[in-house]
Amino acid sequence: MSKIIVTVSGWCEADPEKVRFQLISGDGKEYITGTEWLKLSECTREDYILECAGTAFATALGGEYDYVEVEVQE
Q1: How high is the pLDDT of residue 61?
Q2: What 8-state DSSP symbol labels residue 25?
Q3: pLDDT value of residue 39
Q4: 53: phi > 0 → left, psi -120 to 50 → alpha, else beta; which?
Q5: Greatest alpha-carbon span in the chain
Q6: What domain range is 48 assigned to?
Q7: Is 27 helix (H, G, I), strand (E, B) or coil?
Q8: Which of 1, 3, 6, 56 is the most exposed place for a label (fewest CB within 10 A)?
Q9: What are the strands, taking DSSP E only, across the chain?
Q10: pLDDT at position 4
Q11: Are the beta carbons of 46 and 21 closer than 8 angstroms?
């Protein structure tokens, strides 16, 4: 079966209330909003990763795609 491969480069201004971060180390809530993440110390922020970049772009307050390529892999 063929695959569709999408390559993207760009940026967005994420809406802090619509993105979530997931705990990957340390102690804390498993998931927090961007608003909660912004209130953490810089050191504690490193314990979390963005849950979904797609959500960040889909709900963005602004942004730009610098490059988008769609290709088919057999």
Answers
A1: 97
A2: S
A3: 98
A4: alpha
A5: 47
A6: 3-73
A7: coil
A8: 1
A9: 3-13, 20-23, 31-33, 48-50, 62-73
A10: 98
A11: no
CA-to-CA distance for 21 and 10, rounded, in angstroms? 20
Which stretches of the chain score pLDDT less than 50? none
Burial-class residue 37 by CB neighbours within 10 Å (0-12, 13-18, 19+): middle
CB 23 within 8 A of CB 30: yes
| Residue among 53, 44, 41 nearest 14 (CA) | 53
Q: Please state, in angstroms and as integers, the Cα–Cα distance from residue 59 to each residue in 1, 6, 23, 29, following that order.
A: 32, 19, 21, 23
Measured in whole angstroms, the distance separating CA 15 from the mean position of its chain's CA atoms is: 11
What is the DSSP secondary structure assignment for residue 13, as one 8-state letter? E
Q: Can you read off the two tokens belonging to residue 70?
A: 């769609």
CA–CA separation, 53 vs 63, rounded Å?
Answer: 13
All residues at 6 or more sequence positions from 50 whose CB lies less than 8 Å from its CB, including other chains: 19, 20, 21, 22, 56
